[in-house]
Amino acid sequence: MVLDADIKAQLNQYLQLLEGDVLIKVSAGSDAVSKDMLALVDELATMSSRIKVEQATLPRTPSFSVNRVGEDTGVTFAGIPLGHEFTSLVLALLQVSGRAPKVEQNVIDQIKNISGEYHFESYISLSCHNCPDVVQALNLMSILNPGITHTMIDGAAYKAEAESKNVMAVPTVYLNGEFFSSGRMTIEDILGKLGSAPDASDFADKAPYDVLVVGGGPAGASAAIYAARKGIRTGIVAERFGGQVLDTVGIENFISVKYTEGAKLAASLEEHVKEYGIDVMKSQRAKRLEKRDFIEVELENGAVLKSKTVILSTGARWRNVGVPGEEEFKNKGVAYCPHCDGPLFAGKHVAVIGGGNSGIEAAIDLAGIASHVTVLEFMPELKADAVLQDRLYSLPNVTVLKNVQTKEITGTDKVNGISYIERDTGTVQHIELDGVFVQIGLVPNTDWLGDTVERNRIGEIVVNSHGATNVPGVFAAGDCTNSPYKQIIISMGSGANAALGAFDYLIRN
């Protein structure tokens, strides 16, 4: 039995929702993955009379495709979609059976209007929390458009194939045999890359807002909900809904919720925002802010949005080390997410740059997968909590280098080593290794503001106790501000605070 009792119970409920018959075509050999795959699809068939299974020969063995009877939908799983990909399997079954997807109609229309042949392949790992978004988006596109196909490939089941393509970060997507993209993408991002994104004309007829929120993380979502609950016209424009929360796996300090995961929390935030009739504009980046009669926010596609007040909640991103080799080998051995990309470095030597909590947590995590982990810390002592340091020093396959400065990440077509300077002697040392994980904190996403809003020396927006900036009518909240602590719950509180500040400003002006 592949599925445990809990998952079976969940699955049983979902399979009641199938609207039509589904045919699973299985291409299996005599290997262990094939045997487990056959066990999984046979189990699915015993759980619903709507699911039929037949043997077939597909381009990859082991793999299986999910089809309507008499019609190939182009949805294929090469590997066993359990772990984080279990939801992708469930959604594929439901959507192929005819159940309507939870996607805006304009997105469905965009997908159906794509002409041409698009054969997507996505390389994933089952422990990657960023991968399901991409898999589910490409599956849906395949189901809605007969010219599109998608195969999810588990990098662990197809290790040689992934290595032959130098896949060193997940998700990595190929289109018609050529590299397409790497990293988390929404369905809107994919459509944008295919040239099907909304342009400036799609925003031309939008009336001015009372409150326009820029950024869709916890602060932005909270601000938008608090504003909309006041009955005022609210818009939210965001590059990706959920922000950095999407890059977080386990969340255990969100008060009243003992444990949740970043992707799940981000989905809940978006669902909650949609309850309030807020105008949500996704996959859009702001590039300019200017105060005129209204406050104007110009987007990268050239559209200009107007509002009486604006709340900036653009969050933060991983800080780069800024050494030669980092940019060149991004996703070719340089990584920022140990949970996502760690499994690709199984049995290999990796380095972690950074001795704070996130760096040491990453090193502990990677030590269970990699053959050896080397930690590089700039300061003479690690900054991580004592309990994490104790755990780290108890591991046999970890080396800690303190008081060292990273000089260069070396490689040819992928990372092959790291050079560092011993700060007390000035001696340069080099280590041969296969991957480098950068974990040195955050930098606020505020560069686009220039001098329009007061920022401190590290780029954080300076706000007062009401969330107000130095520009009347412009407020800010969350990790992009000079709030001393960067936590989800603090961002949410500051988003609510900024929205109430903006409402108070509207009443008085």
Reconstruct the topology from this structure.
Elements: H1 5-15, E1 22-27, H2 32-47, E2 51-55, E3 63-68, E4 71-78, H3 86-96, H4 105-112, E5 118-124, H5 131-144, E6 148-154, H6 159-164, E7 172-175, E8 178-182, H7 187-193, E9 209-214, H8 218-228, E10 234-238, E11 250-251, E12 260-261, H9 262-274, E13 279-282, E14 286-291, E15 295-299, E16 304-312, E17 316-318, E18 334-335, H10 338-341, E19 349-353, H11 357-367, E20 372-377, H12 386-393, E21 398-402, E22 404-411, E23 415-422, E24 428-432, E25 435-438, E26 442-444, E27 474-476, H13 488-508
Parallel strand pairs: 1-2, 4-6, 5-6, 9-10, 9-16, 10-13, 16-27, 18-25, 19-20, 19-25, 20-21
Antiparallel strand pairs: 1-3, 3-4, 5-7, 7-8, 11-12, 14-15, 15-16, 17-26, 22-23, 23-24
Subunit structure: Homodimer.
GO molecular function: flavin adenine dinucleotide binding; NAD binding; NADH-dependent peroxiredoxin activity; oxidoreductase activity, acting on a sulfur group of donors, NAD(P) as acceptor
GO cellular component, one term: protein-containing complex
What does this structure look like?
With 509 residues, the chain is an alpha/beta fold. It is globular, with a radius of gyration of 24 Å. Strand 7 and strand 8 (178-182) form a beta hairpin. The protein has helices at 5-15, 32-47, 86-96, 105-112, 131-144, 159-164, 187-193, 218-228, 262-274, 338-341, 357-367, 386-393, 488-508, and strands at residues 22-27, 51-55, 63-68, 71-78, 118-124, 148-154, 172-175, 178-182, 209-214, 234-238, 250-251, 260-261, 279-282, 286-291, 295-299, 304-312, 316-318, 334-335, 349-353, 372-377, 398-402, 404-411, 415-422, 428-432, 435-438, 442-444, 474-476. It has three domains: 5-193, Glutaredoxin (3-Layer(aba) Sandwich); 205-317 and 443-508, 3-Layer(bba) Sandwich (FAD/NAD(P)-binding domain); 334-438, FAD/NAD(P)-binding domain (3-Layer(bba) Sandwich), CATH 3.50.50.60. The protein has an eight-stranded mixed β-sheet with strand order 2-1-3-4-6-5-7-8, with helices on one face. Disulfide bonds join 337-340. Residues 209-488 form the FAD/NAD(P)-binding domain.
